[in-house]
Specification:
6 strands, alpha+beta, KH_dom-like_a/b, OsmC family protein, single chain, 32% helix, OsmC/Ohr_fam, 140 residues, OsmC/Ohrsf, 3-stranded mixed beta sheet
Length: 140
């Protein structure tokens, strides 16, 4: 299977990039680097891709397990190297689950399945970064 993404320069430092879903997004840089801060940053998009991939897995697995949550978010942190080319050498994904009487055992299993088996973006990140995961349970 091959995915094709077309990224088109829109002038100055802005690009528009599509997705196989047909949706588009803008990529830009900060004003201090010559941009207009009008789009998403490329390296941070990688963190979004990681969280999105794992999040889709987790929600799907929890649904199959019939585990109820009222809210779920992920905070993803990437630490960049000092030298160019700068890349993430350490990444931490914090999973935050909210709800009444959360089933922590099943939630942990869902996260572990995503991290260890299903999330392809997680596997790609492991090729160049130390990836850490932390689960936080917020019982209402």
């Amino acid at each position: 299977m091959t995915n094709k993404v077309t990224t088109h320069w829109k002038g100055n430092m802005q690009f528009e990039s599509d997705n196989p879903s047909g949706k588009t997004l803008f990529i830009d840089t900060s004003e201090e680097h010559g941009g207009h801060n009008s789009g998403l940053r490329p390296k941070a998009l990688m963190l979004s891709a990681l969280a999105g991939c794992s999040g889709l897995d987790v929600v799907s697995i929890l649904d199959k397990m019939k585990v109820k949550i009222s809210d779920f978010r992920m905070d993803t942190y990437g630490e960049l190297t000092e030298e160019h080319p700068k890349y993430y050498h350490t990444v931490t994904v914090e999973y935050h689950f909210y709800g009444d009487n959360l089933d922590e055992k099943k939630i942990k299993k869902a996260v572990d399945l995503s991290v260890e088996k299903y999330c392809g973006v997680m596997e790609m990140f492991r090729k160049f970064a130390n990836v850490k995961t932390i689960i936080h349970y917020h019982n209402d």
